[in-house]
Structure formats: structure tokens, C-alpha cells
Amino acid sequence: MEEEPTGGARRLGGSTAEPAGDPIAFAFEGRTVHGRAGESLAASLTAAGLMGLRQAGPDEQRGVFCGMGVCQECLVQIEGFGGQRACMVKTEPGMSVYRHDPALAALRPLGRRPEGAPEIETVEVAIIGAGPAGLSAAKLLAEAGLAPVVLDERPLPGGQYFKPLAPSQRFLPGGEDDQFKAGRRLVEATVAAGTDIRSGSAVWHAAVTEDGVELGIHAPGRAYVIRARFVILAAGAYERPWPVPGWTLPGVMTTGAAQTLARSYRVAPGMRVLIAGNGPLNWQVALEIAAGGGKVVGILESATPSRSRNAPAFLGMLAADRQLALRGLSIRRKLARAGIPIHEGTRLVAVTGNGKAKRAIAAGPGGQKLAFDVDAVCLGYGFLPSTGLLRMLGCPVTVDPANGFARPLVADDGRAGTAPVFVAGDASGIGGSVVAANGGVIAAAAVLEALGRADGRAARSARAARRRGARARRFQHHLWKLFADRQPPLAIADETPVCRCENVTAGAIRALRDEGVRDLGSLKRRTRLGMGGCQGRYCAGEALKILRDGDLSSAGPADLFAPQAPEKPVPAILLESEKAEWGGHREVETRPHPPHLPPPDPLPATTDLLVIGAGVIGTSSAMFAAGAGIETVVIDRSAPNSQASGGNAGSLHVQLLSWDFGRKAMAGGSPALRTIPLQRDAVQLWKELERDLDGDFEITTTGGLMVAENEEQTAFLRDKAEAERSMGIPVEVITRAEIAALAPHIAERMVVAAYCPDEGKINPMKATPALVAEAKRRGVRFAAGHNVIGIRAEADGYEVTTSGATIRARRVLIAAGGWSRHIGRMVGVELPISGAPLQMLVTEPTRPILKQLVAHADRHLTMKQATNGNLIIGGAWTAGTDPATGYSKVLRPSIEGNLWVAERTVPALAGLHLLRSWAAMNVNIDGAPLLGAIPGKPGLFVAASANGYTLGPLLGQLTADCIAGRRPLHALEGFTLARFRGAAA
């Protein structure tokens, strides 16, 4: 192997600690690198000057950014195991490491398939996070006789504040500083009191149950479930993004990541380090790097704390905590002695370099320009609470108008709404380590009271914690007055990526804003912003600010991304668990009135045709109706393509799915069977629209495979294929050898498959917006924010009252998907349409392994690979419904069951992480669409279908023909309401 310099100049010395880990060697990209046993791989690579890790494109790499396992930027492949976070993995001698490149993924299984259902453990109190808040809470609970379980993703307890020293270091006599010492003592006392601290354990899913909280846990090599009566969320915070040109270059990282390298591993982030941001943490980190011999070329401080007008703030700090205030002054003096300049009132505006950071550009007071030669830039512009699990649990949040991200709403004792959930530390709002530790005590005392275990000692501890916390908050209040950044917000340049994961630029967001996009959901579906590994943690707020032109005064929880499961990427194979199968879709009663609606768009007083529902069917109907010269308005609660259509995975089905034929099928399967000619023709119409609208819908018809693994399933496939051929669908049953030739990654256990060459896939994020744009071009008017609350028949049409306006229409089309039944009841019609909440799963991207659309002959499964490499997994696995909003939410058992079927069918899935999931409200009828005029209700029409995305444009075309009084291209017999006796009131 080629020898790589050790990078010894980046290793810090000083009096605090000395290297003690054994020198080891490992390989990176085939070159020998020297590290130390026990340190993180990120530290070893940084010490060697190797900053480019995750391959983000053919010519673009990413490196260590957050240093705490949040951003997913430092991904590497270790011994063939892909998607490993270098900041969370320990360096081992002889390990073989490569950059994580999805195009070259080895796909070695990331664990062993579980045997049976996940283990379930019951505890009274679970605490998430082992920082100052979590440890302080656990200590009080344990001292009161409980046995709390503390779950923490980091390899050692202490959190981001205490940052325990790695085993690769040892203390010199008298060299342990106060921060290390306090953390070590708190951990020791917490364990001695009887706390079970489980390091390396991450919570990937959380849900409130009837008797507590259920947590899905991912630990090394396994996954299990904890059921707790109460949960204390002490998940801490992460650093706020600062998107400037070049902020994605290797060598640009957060100040917290730099501090972890310097404190825990005694590694400098670079040879020439610039620290930029706001607040005293940046000063402390600069001093820590310099004290170990590192070179800090300067601190860019966006505030002006040394100006005389800030004297009252400093006096307030002295009054609140004299010792801490004077310690801050001493840091400034030490920085001066170290020769580190502090540029006050100065912000970083760009980082440049060819593949890694080389030069930093800053803007100072009066527009002064500064430039620095660097190889590392550390960004520290404040913190954001970690709210992913809190929001997954349905606890209340609001939108912070200063940054556009979620801000928890908690009671004085830390209780989060009505759930058995308490929040402590920076996860409840940024307050610093002292506030966090005392918040943990207060939350623990409240839990003891709720459990009936409170005593005088706990009450005294809580009172003392309130006093200490109040004093610390006073100090923080004056501190941030001193460090207030009073400069106007810095506009993000158009070319700057806002979404690091998917490379979505500020310019792309502004272009869609100018088209009328105002919500994050629509932006996500148009650009993929927020769909990457960090799940929107760094981009959501910045994007929302751009969409709203910086005015977030009216933003609320409905404007945020929906919380994601898993909370962070998890090896898919560890979550697998076989579940019982069922037929078709599981139905629910949809909620007619959602609690949150966007501001209503204006409506005209009248229109010829009013379409209720802006999904693919409603949009297509409007487009074709307008093309026939009919004045058309489309209304919806949300923006177009927001619900089932926007949540569709993009399968273009022509074959029957397994639950649409045989014993599982509704109505004997005949409705679904007579629908498939429509599906075949619908795929052709999609292709025509892609061509005619000059769009790129990413349509591919590479065929569909429905696989069977035994004789019974084989017989089922043969019968189904014969029935499909009788309807004019080209389907053949192929052998094991033919499967291997077409799709070599299909499991060998699959003995035959039904192959239909007409099946394929489409990208709904591109296709539906193109239909909306064409409908608008034809004169259709779309209006969001309108929940229909009443419809009254008139002599010449209908008066429709919404939550925002009233409109009269000569004709009305109900195309509201799973909510259509509620609309029908307003005019005295019982539409046989039910809601069916479904969920989908998405893996990290990988190299091409799945060309066809894949389904299973006896299991709920649909599976395909998107253009960007993600595997998209579904198959009508039921989702739940959120009692607070009525919208769909993912269920842990459905995730586990869906993954079991998927990996059984495509074993390469075992080498991938589950990246995200989503849920949407589909519809269920009887296997066939429901179309046409509603008997006895002149001018009233309906259009709905369970396979709505494949059929969408065709159903819209047929519906528009009916509305216009033209003969449809397809006969509608068998698809109208007439097949359901007694439907009309």
C-alpha cells in the first residue's frame, strides 16, 4: 500500500493529556494511515489530513461536519459495511476503509436477521440522552429507588458538553480540567446510584401508547423495544446551520465537531483553523486548540461584545455569576496572549477551495473584506433543540420565528403536553449546561410525583434546582445580550446549497417560491429537499425562511416537515420481523376537519366546474375539462399534490396485486380484474403526456415481476396470469433461470415469477407538478386552504361553503380521495369510499440492483429502485392516524413487517440503511375506480380509485368527458355508483 503521512502536526499536546492509545495502522482507499487505538475514525483521518469522505457526486466529497452523528456527512465503508459514520466508529488496527460511494456499494449485510419478533422490555422510566440533563435526572431517580434506563447513542456517556476523554488518552498528574472532572464525577455518581446507562443505543422510533411510551431501540447488532411508563427526553441540541458558498467543502465543520476532536481525541481540525460564529463557545474551542499547539488564525465574532454599550450586560452577568463572568474575561486574555485575533462584528461569507477548504472570506464592520488561508473552518452560530423524537411523540412545538425550526412547548416542570413525556436540557430550549443539569433534576422530581414516589428529598432537590436554574438563566440572558448579533440577516447566495444532503440551492428554492410554492411539503416534493440522511435538520428552517421572504410570524407546526422514522438511519436488516398477512387495504374513518390549514387562497364567486381535491385525479380532471373549454376551479385543504398523490411511491401497475385476485380479493376480484385494461392504457397516456408537455417524469417501463416461492404461490400466479391475459394484458410466468437473467438480485428462493413488460415506474414529484402547471396554463385556478364544510343544491348548481369562502358552481366533482365520503354526505349521498392509511419505506441510495418493479405473490410488497438509487418499499402496509391531526403516521410493526418481506425477496437490502418513511391516506373501494355522474344529483360527479396514481390522468380524461357530455373513450359500465345498490340517499 502507498504510505500516507501520519499527520502528526495535527495532534495536540499540552498539559491536559497525552496520547496513550497504542499506535495502529489501517488502510484508507488502499493507503496506510496511522492512528491510535480507541479514537474515532474521524479523529484518525483528520489527524492524517484526510478530510474528504462521503462521495456526494462524481467530483464532490463531504467530510466531518457535525461530529456527533447527526449530519450523515462523514460516511465511510468499513470492511464492506457501507454507510458507517466515521465520527461514531472507533479506529481498529488493520481495518480497511473507503469513502462511502453509493455507486460502488459493497452491500455486505449490516447485521444478522433477527429471529422472531423484537424483544420487549418494560421499565418505569427511560431517559434519552446521557448529557448533563439526562445524567442529573437519572441520578435523582436512582437515588429515589427507581432503576432508570439511560439510552445514549454516543460510545461514552457525558454528552456534547462534558465530551469525555477518549480511551486513547490518559490524564497527566493534575492535568484533568474542571469540565472533564465534573463530567466524570457525575457519570460515576449516576452509575453508583443504580442507573443503567446504555451507550451506543439509539432510539429510532417512538410512540405514545395507552399506558406509556414505546421506544424502538437500535443497539450494536440488534434492535429491541422498550415500554416505559414515562420518558425524559434529554437529547440535547445540534449546531445551527450557516449556509454560505463553500460550507459543504471538506474541512468546514461545526465548532462542536472541532471541540470533540480537540478535547476528546487531542486532534486539531486543521493546520490553519479559522473559527467563525457567535458566542463564547467559539472562544473556548479556539483556546483549547491553541493550548495544545494548534494554529488558530482568527475568530470571526458576529457580535460586538467589547463595545461600551454592552457594559450593562456584562454587569448583569457579574451579578448572576461572578466567577463564571470573570472566567469569560480570562479566556479573552488568554486568547490575546496566544496571539489569536478576534474580529468583532464580522461574519463568514464564503469558503473556497478545490475539493477542500483553502480560503475563507469574511465581511467586517462597514463592509470591510477579510481573507484567510485555511484548511479548516469551524462554524458556531448557535444551537437548535433536537426535536425529532419529541415531534414523533406528538408533543407540542411551535416555529421559532428567528430561525424557522421547531421549538418545544413545555411546562415549567418539563412536561410536554399531555403525554407521559418530559423534556430536559437543551432539547427543551437552549440554556447551557447548568440550566440543563437543573432541568433534569426538575423533570425527574416531576416524574417521581407522577409515579407517587415523591418524597421530601426530591422536592428539596427540585426547589434547589429551580433556584440554580433561574440564576443560570439570568446569566444566559445577559450573556446573549452581550453577544447579540444586531446585524441584518445575511442573504443566502443563489448558488449556495441549503440542503446539504440533496444539493438543493437557495436559487432553486427562490425559483419555486416565485412560482407560488409556500410550504415545505410542496418544496420537498419538487426538489427532494429534506429527503437525505439528516432528514431536514439543517435545511428546513432556512428553506422556510426563503419561501416566506424571511417573515415567519404566521408560521406554525403545520409548516414543519412531518417527523421521520427512523429518527436517524438504521440498518434495515436489524428491524425485520415477520407479521401476519391480510387481504387488501385496512380501512379507517377519515377525519373531516383537520386542526391546521394554511391561509385560504382567494376564490371567485362562481365557476362552471368546481373540483374538490387537488391530487392527481382532481388535477387531471381539471386539466382535461379546461381543455374542453370549461371554466374550472380546484380547491383543497392543502397545496396540490399534498396527500395521497404526493405520498405515492410512483409504481405504474398493470398486473393485479396479490390481494386483488383469488381468496384475498374484494368482491371476488372481478372489479380489480376489469380495471387492468384501464391501467394498461393509463401507462400509455402518462407517456403521451410526458412527451406532449415536454417533461421528464422519469417514466421507465422495464417490466414488473411478481415472485413466488412455493408450489401454492406458483399455482396462484399461473391462474392470475391466465385471467390477466384474458383481459388483454401481456403476462407470462417465467422460470428461476429467467428471473436470474432479468433480475439477478432477486432471492434464489423465488422459483417462478409473473412477468409483465408493460409495468414500470414514474416520479410523482415531477409528474404531478407538470400536470398542475399545464392545468394552470389552460386556465384552471387552484386554491389551497379550503376545507369543505357544506354543500347546498340550488336550481342551477351548488353552493359550496369552505372554511375560507363560499363559491357557486354549476357542476361539482368530488375527487377528495379518502375524504370523499364526507363530501358525499353533505349532499345526501353515501359514497362507498374509505380511507386506507398506507406507509412507504426508503433506503439510502445504492448502485443499480433492481431494474423491474417487484411484487410478491402472497405477501404485501411492492419494491423498486428510484433514479437516484434509493430503494422504495411498500405494498399497502397499513399506517396509523394521528389523533391530533387526523393525518396518517407510520407504525413500527408495519416497518418491521415490510422490511422482512422486502429483504426476503431482495437480500441485498441487508446491506442498506433504512433512511426514512412516510405515510399517506390512500382510498379503498372494491378494487375498481368509482367514476361518473351521481344518480339523482344533476351536475354532481365523483372520481376516485385505490390505484389512483397509475390511473390518474386516464380517470381525469374519462371524468372530463362525462362532465362535458362527451362519450368517454372507455365504457364506464362497472365503474359507476350504480354497482353499489342503495348508495344514493
TrEMBL record:
For this UniProt record, the keywords arranged alphabetically read as follows: Oxidoreductase
Stretches for region Disordered: 1-21
Looking at the record, the residues that make up the FAD/NAD(P)-binding domain are 124-437
Note the InterPro entries from the entry.
Answer: 2Fe-2S-bd_N, 2Fe-2S_ferredoxin-like_sf, BFD-like_2Fe2S-bd_dom, BFD-like_2Fe2S-bd_dom_sf, FAD-dep_OxRdtase, FAD/NAD-bd_sf, FAD/NAD-binding_dom, Metab_Enz_Cyan_OpOx_G3PDH
Signal peptide as annotated in the record: none
Q: Where is the FAD dependent oxidoreductase domain?
A: 608-961
Q: What is this protein called?
A: Glycine/D-amino acid oxidase-like deaminating enzyme/bacterioferritin-associated ferredoxin
| Organism for this UniProt entry | Kaistia geumhonensis
